[in-house]
Each structure stands twice: as structure tokens, then as C-alpha cells.
Design a protein that fits this description.
CATH topology: Metallo-beta-lactamase, Chain A
Number of helices: 7
Shape: globular
Helix content: 25-40%
CATH architecture: 4-Layer Sandwich
Distance between the termini: 45 Å
Order of helices and strands: HHEEEHEHEHHEEEEEHEE
Largest sheet: 6 strands, mixed
Length: about 260
Amino acid sequence: MLSCGFRFRANMEFYDRGFRFHGIRRADYRTILERIAMAQELQIYTSISKLNETNMYLIVNQQSDHAILIDPSDVAAACQWIENKALQLDYILLTHEHYDHISALNEIRKVFSAEVIASAACSAGIQRPEINLSKFFNLVLDFRKDRGLTKEPQPKVHPYSAEKAEHTFDDSLELEWQGHKIQLWSAPGHSKGGTLINCDGKYLFSGDTLSYEYELITSFPGGSKKEYRNVTKPLLLGLDKAMKVYPGHGRSFLLEEAAIV
């Protein structure tokens, strides 16, 4: 396989030989090629856990075999991904503190040495069953079952807590990872510890803050319509509409398809 660096140099030589796109400067052409190379490097895998049909994501840098796990909810799927592909798991990122998004965190921490990154509020919430909702999660599952929102049989949930995150932030954090820029922004509304994860300005991991198929819920403990409108909604409205969104539940979609209320 040709390296991205080789392809980049070859394409710049192609440009220099006179095959220029009309109206595109050399510097702009270079930027376009860099973005194409970055996109080719990353592969995003999705696993839907049986518990509440929650999405778990693995971002893989195919050039280096390093990876980031987002919202660990299925230990078997995570181990299969990472071990079968001989990946180095560097970080675990959390979109928020609710149990269905962290249910495999303790087990995955035992298997892999990856450090957890979360907002300070999220880190506090994963340590408390009444905040991460595991204490009440059977009621949540019954509610969804009664309304036909859950397809899979659901397990019995017991109060759950996890150790605090190794790295926390209040408003935002920027992570340089394998040549990629990952930004984490505090995004309260659905929960106090809600977080938007922006990868290279191309991919947005939204947790339960934004979904194509489900309305935003702000009625859980720590939720707030006011904080969503004042803090999170402006963040969403300021993003590139061409970004691909990977939500906590349901299918991925382009940001331009979303109804940001």
C-alpha cells in the first residue's frame, strides 16, 4: 500500500506538471489533498449494543493502527475490534455520563491501558449511580419497552459506578492525535456532562445531544433546556453543515439533515 505521504507528493507533482484545476491556487490544492489524505487514514466502526440500542464507535488510524473508542457499551465488540486488528487503543472518549454509554467502561479499562477523557461533569457523573442513571435504568428500559422503542430483550441493570476520568475539562479540550485534531466541547442539555466530539471538522460524535431519529430529552436529572439553548445550540449552529454526525442512538447523518431545535 502506498503511504499517504507518497500519494501527496505524487499528486503535487501532478499539479505542477500543469494539470491544474481552473481557479484553484497551489496552496488551496495542497489543502484539498491534505484533507483527502486525512479522510483516507481514518476508519470509523460502529457497534450497536443490545442495551438500549446504544452506538459505540471506534476511530482507527489505518496508517498507524492506533485507535480511539467512544462510548464503551459493548466489551465483546470492543475487544474483537481491537484484538483482531492488532490495534493500539490510546483513548476512551465519553459523550456523556449515562449508563448505556459507559456500561462496558470498567471491563474495557481492565483489558486495555487506554486513558479516559471526559468533561468534569461527566467524570463526576460516571462515579454516581443516581447521576449516570444506572440506579433507575430499569425504569427507563420499561418506559421504552412500553412504547415499542426497544427491539431487543433488555438485561436487568444494577447500580453502577466507574472511576473518574484520567483527563477532564470544563469548557473544551483539544487533542492532537496521530496527525488529527479532536476537539471536545462541553454541551449540556441532555445531561450535565454532555460533550460534542469534533474530529478534523469532518465528523461529529454527538451522543444524545443530537439525533436524526429521536428528539432531544432534557428531563433527566442534570438535563436543562436553558443550558442547551444558551450553550449547546450555538455550538451546533456554528458547525459546518457538511459534517457527518455519529449519534448515540440511530443512524449517522449529515448535519444539514438535522433539525436543531
